[in-house]
Design a protein that fits this description.
By secondary structure, the protein is an alpha/beta fold. The chain contains 9 helices and 13 strands. The two termini are 22 Å apart.
Length: 313
């Protein structure tokens, strides 16, 4: 019997060709000159990917259109799981997820959204897709994992003092028996005490951010039966550069093995960072057959979620 292992069969990422320098965002985001310089010189942010002419449905549609491995296999897709950071993104009764599913020939699939882990919801969507496929009686069943959001309000465009959000989308075709990019482990720590709306200090969250993320990374590596030195590459959430430099110092891990090149040109793409970085790693030949790599994400909303996954390419 073929073992059931969540695997990425194919990934498509859409990022707008338009790049906006962060200096041009100072006025709409209410940033001072000093704050802009801090983002550029300290956090490593330079440009943000934005596409004001495209709707959220357009972003998702572009990602789905780019996944050639889906053609002719639409009937095998049983589940479409949309990982999203923002709980509400369009006015009722619009539903861009169901709209793009119908257009892509996936109207028969069970389609739903997960948002409650904020920017870590993309990894939650991937893990959920694997669980659904594991329970599905059809060994050929597939799932489609989607991410993508519009930076449509100030709160959806700015993480004060930390990052600026860009726009993009991704589509990942998931199977239970794929030959490559097989998930070896998943670790997740949900910290409800970091809900600042109920009186918890933002300072404590910032203080415990890196140790908490380091903890789930080590947990995921241990669960995969590996040591940190076995990890060939880390695909981060693109919150900023300095966070990962300091985290690598804390973990004694070479920062050269963290793919940070998308931070200056895209900004933080909500839940799409992991998939955008995966695509970049493939394009640049940074992953060889058999390499074990780690994907990490943090979501901050009603509390905080720290997540890490280990894959074998």
């Amino acid at each position: 019997m073929i073992p059931i292992v969540t695997a990425l069969d194919a990934v498509s990422v859409y990022t707008p060709a338009v790049r906006v320098p962060i200096e041009s965002l100072a006025e709409p985001l209410g940033l001072t000159d000093m704050q802009v310089r801090l983002f550029r010189r300290f956090h490593g942010l330079g440009e943000i990917s934005l596409d004001p002419e495209r709707s959220l449905a357009d972003l998702l549609r572009a990602a789905i259109d780019g996944i050639g491995a889906l053609r002719g296999r639409e009937h095998l897709v049983r589940y479409v799981v949309y990982g999203r950071a923002m709980p509400v993104v369009v006015p009722y009764p619009d539903n861009p997820l169901h709209e793009v599913c119908r257009e892509a020939g996936l109207g028969h699939a069970l389609a739903f959204t997960v948002t409650h882990q904020s920017c870590a919801s993309g990894l939650l969507a991937l893990e959920t897709a694997g669980r659904l496929l594991e329970a599905d009686p059809d060994p050929d069943a597939l799932a489609l994992v989607l991410t993508g959001e519009k930076a449509f309000t100030r709160d959806a465009r700015l993480l004060p003092g930390t990052s600026i959000f860009g726009e993009g989308a991704s589509a990942g075709l998931v199977s239970a028996h794929g030959p490559r990019d097989r998930m070896l482990s998943f670790a997740c720590a949900q910290r409800g005490e970091f809900d600042t709306e109920f009186g918890e200090s933002a300072e404590r969250f910032q203080r415990e951010y890196r140790p908490s993320l380091a903890g789930v990374i080590r947990e995921a590596v241990d669960e995969a039966g590996l040591a940190l030195d076995d990890i060939a590459l880390v695909l981060p959430h693109n919150v900023n550069v300095v966070t990962w430099q300091r985290l690598c110092l804390l973990m004694d891990f070479p920062v050269e093995r963290v793919l940070l090149s998308n931070v200056p040109v895209n900004g933080h793409l909500f839940c799409s960072d992991a998939f955008a970085n995966y695509t970049t790693a493939r394009e640049r030949g940074l992953l060889r057959e058999g390499d074990r790599y780690l994907v990490a994400a943090v979501g901050a909303g009603a509390g905080a979620t720290f997540s890490a996954m280990v894959f074998q390419h």
